[in-house]
Amino acid sequence: MKTTISDIFFDLDHTLWDFDTNSKLAFKRIFEQRHPQIAIGDFLEKYIPINQACWKLFQVDHMTHDELRYNRLRQSFDAINYEISDAEIDSIANEYLQFLPQFNHLFEDAIETLEYLQPRYRLHIITNGFAETQFKKINNSNLSRFFETVTNSEMAGAKKPNPIIFEHALNLGGAKKESSIMIGDCLDADVRGACDFGMRAIYFNPNNTDAPENTIQITTLAQLKTLL
User: Fold this and answer.
1) What is the pLDDT of residues 164-217, one digit of tens each?
2) What residue ranges define each of the domains in the chain, with the CATH number in brackets?
3) Under DSSP, is residue 124 helix (H, G, I), strand (E, B) or coil?
4) Looking at the chain, which runs of residues are DSSP E strands?
5) DSSP 8-class letter at 129
6) pLDDT at position 2, please?
7) How far apart are CA 97 and CA 31, in angstroms?
8) Which residues are within 8 A (CB) of 101 and not within 5 positions of it... i.e. 6 or more apart?
9) Rama region for 109: left / alpha / beta (φ>0; ψ in -120 to 50; rest)
10) Is the separation of the CB atoms in 96 and 33 below 8 Å?
11) Can you give the pLDDT at residue 130?
């Protein structure tokens, strides 16, 4: 694999950027200021799977950007039986996207691994996240220096696993699918999306969850140094 790969495409959230840790810190700040009676652990226990379910719908265009921002919060507050107005949910949604990029925890070995890969490959990002927020995350966490291009779903007009976003990313980076590989935490969006498009893929699986037998996977980013 090392001799045939020239371009590596990374997902951002849950792959390089530690979304769960940073999201918890953003909600903690918001609730301390606006709703101190909410136990952050109880809220996140409901929010995390609800957010994941909403994102799956968003990825296949069954939920809009605005619906995602509202529904994941409304459903989470309902799940903990906390009464809150739609206007307050809208304010929290705005504050959340404002605070989220201010926290910049990365996965263990992220910087060390990128420093190893950068002299050897051209590095890129493909993300389904909201464009403005994603660029803030990349810049604030000092990741921008590693990547030649960043493709987000808004600029591509499609989300992973749609082949359009992979085609856009390759064109932007001047890369070829046969010499490119995708690395991400989502089997559907990152791994199957890339493979269906004709790229190779590596599944970042830090929780060691079940995966199809033929899936190339890693549990730490540092393992990429032995594969690539």
Assistant:
1) 999 999 999 999 999 999 999 999 999 999 999 999 999 999 999 999 999 999
2) 7-18+106-227 (3.40.50.1000), 19-102 (1.10.150.240)
3) strand
4) 7-10, 122-127, 149-152, 180-184, 200-204, 217-218
5) S
6) 58
7) 14
8) 133, 136, 137, 140
9) left
10) no
11) 85
CA distance 49 to 88: 22
Tokens for 18, please give them. Answer: 């530690």
Looking up tokens 């996240």 gives 129
β-partners of residue 182 are 9, 201
Helix, strand, or coil here: 194?
Answer: helix
CB 177 within 8 A of CB 198: yes
Q: Smallest Cα–Cα separation from 80: which of 109, 117, 38?
A: 38
Peptide bond into 36 cis (omega under 30): no
